[in-house]
Structure formats: structure tokens, C-alpha cells
Design a protein that fits this description.
Organism: Megalops atlanticus
Protein name: Riboflavin kinase
Low-confidence stretches: none
EC number: 2.7.1.26
Catalytic activity: riboflavin + ATP = FMN + ADP + H(+)
Structural class: alpha+beta
GO cellular component, one term: mitochondrion
Number of domains: 1
Largest sheet: 7 strands, antiparallel
Mean pLDDT: 87
């Protein structure tokens, strides 16, 4: 995908309420205004990269972009799982992400258990990939130190 790495920023909104409750894997969701500005060559699927909340530390992340076939969503979403434990929710905080690589296409699952297993596998893949030099250096990109109140998308 020619658009990677792709950098985007937006306020965290309430999602479908499934990440923490049903899956045990909390996600931060971008508003439609961010989702609608994804480049055409970023297809639905699972991605990995870096994320920062409110201009704080940068952490590894895995992101689902798409329709979530298991749940039969009618609206495309960008759901970011930051590989870090936060003490509290951060709705309305600014989320900055660098999407740097692709893991797999979006797909349906026959059970909640198989979906959770796939997500955990995706998280492990993201951790490994982000340790590679070509991806780890993006953690230090000046995007994460730029004025975080400025909403921007691009690469």
C-alpha cells in the first residue's frame, strides 16, 4: 500500500461497546471524519503501528479498519487497540496514530472465541513487526511531538 505509513489524528469517540466488555480487548475509536479520509488504497483489514493518547507516550497498536463482519456492522470503523494498560478511559482525548503495516484482510468468524483468538494472534504479530528497525524508528516520528490539537491526516 503506497499510503503507508499513514498518520492520522482525531478525538476518541464511544464505539460499539464490545472491545472491553465482550472481547476483553479495549479499543479507541475514531470519528467518521477520520474514517472518511482514509486513502483509497488502505483496504479493510488489520494493521499495526504506533499510537499516542493526548500527546503522551507512544505505544504499539493494532487496528481494525472495516465493517467487522462478525458483528455485521453497517458503518465502516477504525478501532485501535493500544498495547498498553491505561488506568481509565480516555474518551474525547486526542488519539494520534501512525499506521505502518498490514497484517491481514478483514474476515468473518464462526464464533466469538475464534474472533478473540484471531485478535490475540494479530496483537502478537504487531508486537513482533514493530520491533523490526524499519517500523520501530517510526515510534520517534515528529508527528507524535507535533501540536496534538491540530487534527491531521496524511503520510
Amino acid at each position: 500500500m503506497k499510503s503507508l505509513p499513514f498518520f492520522c489524528r482525531g478525538k476518541v469517540i464511544r464505539g460499539f461497546g464490545r472491545g472491553s466488555k465482550q472481547l476483553g480487548i479495549p479499543t479507541a475509536n475514531f470519528p467518521d471524519s477520520v474514517v472518511e479520509h482514509l486513502p483509497a488504497d488502505i483496504s479493510t483489514g488489520i494493521y499495526f503501528g504506533w499510537a499516542s493518547v493526548g500527546g503522551s507516550d507512544v505505544h504499539k497498536m493494532v487496528m481494525s479498519i472495516g465493517w467487522n463482519p462478525y458483528y455485521k456492522n453497517t458503518k465502516k470503523s477504525m478501532e485501535t487497540h493500544i498495547i498498553h494498560t491505561f488506568k481509565e478511559d480516555f474518551y474525547r482525548e486526542t488519539l494520534s496514530v501512525a499506521i505502518v503495516g498490514y497484517i491481514r484482510p478483514e474476515r468473518g468468524f464462526d464464533s466469538l472465541g475464534s474472533l478473540i483468538t484471531a485478535i490475540r494472534t494479530d496483537i502478537e504479530e504487531a508486537k513482533e513487526q514493530l520491533d523490526l528497525p524499519e517500523y520501530s524508528e517510526l515510534r520517534e516520528d515528529n508527528f507524535f511531538t507535533a501540536e496534538s490539537s491540530q487534527i491531521m491526516n496524511g503520510h
